[in-house]
């Protein structure tokens, strides 16, 4: 999905809440020429029954963003908690009552020619309505890309650096042109790194397997959530180890994880069916668990959610009162 935002959307830009049409940067902006920005992607899910919008793990996203900004020496003064507040305020000002996506972006903002960076930094936060990123309900067809994943010592893939996404864009474009839904990138050693915009998991012999970060993958927050759900709720063993290309062709189940894609089953790779070509049972279970946890259906995972319109704290108090009333 490509989301074209409404120009009246209120965004946080230059330290103020302004309509998107007024949030403009100059043509000589450093980041526009050299890719010297760092971004994040955060999801919020609307739960109809609770009439609530839940922002998913915003503190972890903002902590990662600030760390990643440090890689490019971009300063973002607000704390993660203050950035969460800005995010909630944006959602309220835009009256978002639907699934949404938050895009924080920090960048080198000097308007002059010259690749060397200086001290001029800026940041913005945009929150917009956003549905499914990939049509994954029936399972995706992924293709191994001819493009290799960028190396940590070239442009660190863990850092969500704007310029690094040329690598993802080339791979995604090639995949779409070849009729695939998403690309899988190998690293320079020929091992599986990740999808163009998501991490990758494989099921073999009942174990959940994913490449370690050292294979040049992003330290995904959804990856981390899925690992916790798989271990705690399904008692699965989660193994981080290298995956060879041909192992994708003989595995039992395969799925992508990411803020935008959620948990997205892969049912074909390079024109070969994954097992019988149907969504696998563990993938189905993990996808459902992730949906329930991210929509505020599972008290154990309220810790991941920040509600926009009602505090979960008061919800918990309501539940406590209800339990007491039922016990007496
Ligand atoms: C290249 C890449 N890998 C993995 C991910 C998944 O990371 P997360 O689950 O933190 O969104 C993303 C999305 O942000 C990504 O762009």
């Amino acid at each position: 999905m490509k989301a074209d935002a409404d120009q009246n959307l209120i965004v946080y830009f230059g330290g103020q809440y302004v309509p998107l049409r007024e949030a403009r940067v100059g043509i000589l902006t450093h980041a526009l020429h050299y890719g010297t920005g760092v971004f994040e992607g955060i999801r919020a899910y609307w739960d109809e029954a609770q009439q609530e919008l839940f922002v998913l793990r915003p503190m972890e996203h903002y902590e990662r963003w600030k760390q990643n900004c440090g890689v490019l020496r971009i300063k973002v003064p607000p704390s993660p908690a203050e950035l969460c507040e800005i995010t909630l305020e944006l959602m309220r000002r835009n009256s978002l009552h639907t699934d949404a996506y938050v895009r924080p972006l920090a960048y080198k903002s000097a308007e002059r020619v010259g690749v060397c960076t200086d001290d001029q930094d800026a940041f913005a936060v945009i929150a917009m309505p956003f549905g499914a990123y990939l049509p994954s309900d029936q399972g995706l067809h992924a293709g191994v890309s001819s493009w290799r994943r960028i190396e940590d010592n070239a442009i660190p893939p863990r850092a969500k650096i704007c310029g690094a996404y040329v690598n993802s864009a080339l791979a995604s474009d090639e995949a779409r042109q070849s009729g695939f839904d998403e690309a899988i990138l190998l690293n320079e050693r020929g091992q599986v790194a990740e999808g163009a915009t998501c991490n990758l998991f494989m099921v073999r012999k009942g174990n959940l397997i994913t490449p370690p970060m050292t294979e040049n993958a992003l330290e995904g927050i959804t990856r981390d959530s899925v690992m916790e759900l798989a271990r705690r709720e399904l008692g699965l063993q989660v193994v981080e180890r290298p995956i060879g290309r041909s192992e994708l062709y003989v595995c039992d189940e395969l799925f992508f994880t990411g803020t935008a894609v959620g948990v997205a089953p892969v049912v074909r790779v390079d024109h070969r069916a994954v097992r019988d070509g149907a969504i696998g049972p563990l993938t189905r279970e993990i996808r459902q668990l992730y949906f329930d946890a991210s929509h505020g259906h599972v008290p154990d995972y309220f810790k991941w959610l920040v509600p926009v319109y009602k505090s979960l704290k008061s919800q918990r108090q309501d539940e406590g009162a209800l339990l007491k009333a039922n016990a007496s």
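Residues 41, 168, 194, 197-199, 218, 220-223, 257-259 surround pyridoxal-5'-phosphate (CB under 6 Å). The first helix runs from residue 30 to 34.
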